[in-house]
Amino acid sequence: MASIDAAADVLNGPVNTDRSSSSSTSGQRRSWWPALPTPIKNFVDKFPLITYAPNTPPLRAFQPRNVPTLFITSDLPLVDGISGDPNCAKYQIYFHFLSVPYSTHPATPAASPTLTLPIILPSSTSKTVPISHKHTPKPIVPTSTRLWTYITSLNRSTRHAVPLKDPQVAALLALCDTLLYPAWCILTFPDPTPFLPFLQDHLPLQKSSGAWLGNSQPVREAYSRNADEVLAGARGALDALQEFLLNSGGWEGWFFGGQEPGVADAAVWGFVEGLMRCKWGVMVVGERPELVKWWERVGREVLKRK
């Protein structure tokens, strides 16, 4: 029994008859935080750790606005505030279609989480998007139909446009992305030869003639194919768009018979706008008068062009 009692004394320490001291020791013993070794404690006491407040943002840093901000490529000139990049112009005209106020901000793809433009930063007062920290909205990136869906949500009164989920709209968007966008890239950036090895290695971005291009599948295919084939595909796509338009009531109507402009109209107008800023586009699109008159009509009615 003596050996057991001695072992208990070693494990539990000497018996303390002072109840307050005993309870204090018991509380310390139950603490989950381990005791700091003496050498480390002496070092920390001599060189205390200081936590500094976060740095304030630079004075020129972008600040969220009271309206959605569309970040568009900074390498192409604006005409009537509209970008020359079809992928940016189509979202800009859609904002106008819905009468939703917005702002634009020049950017490079490095500003985008997905390294592609455009992206949308919702307004600082938006309650429909997730918040990152300090009430700053997270950007919405151009994946799938997220940008179309977000812009549409800003004007719930739109009821008479052809919906985004319509199979015809999906087919038209695919036609624009796979046939018209590669042609626009070739016409706008005609000499990507020094960058072809990088494109083939699937780098996220390539810089050609001073402008950044998203490394989308259509772009890679455009520069890996014969330019004549790409432009021939664009001609066929423009023929199909004019046929869709004629079946929808002609240049005075909206695509697929919508009573008001929708996603399909915004996409077509954006790509025609981009093509009409190069000589080939003016010539080839000009051969399709119904499409040209429709494009001009949208410019007059929506952008107040003369």
TrEMBL record:
This is GST C-terminal domain-containing protein. Residues 162-306 form the GST C-terminal domain. Pfam families: GST_C_2. Signal peptide: none annotated. InterPro entries: Glutathione-S-Trfase_C-like, Glutathione-S-Trfase_C_sf.
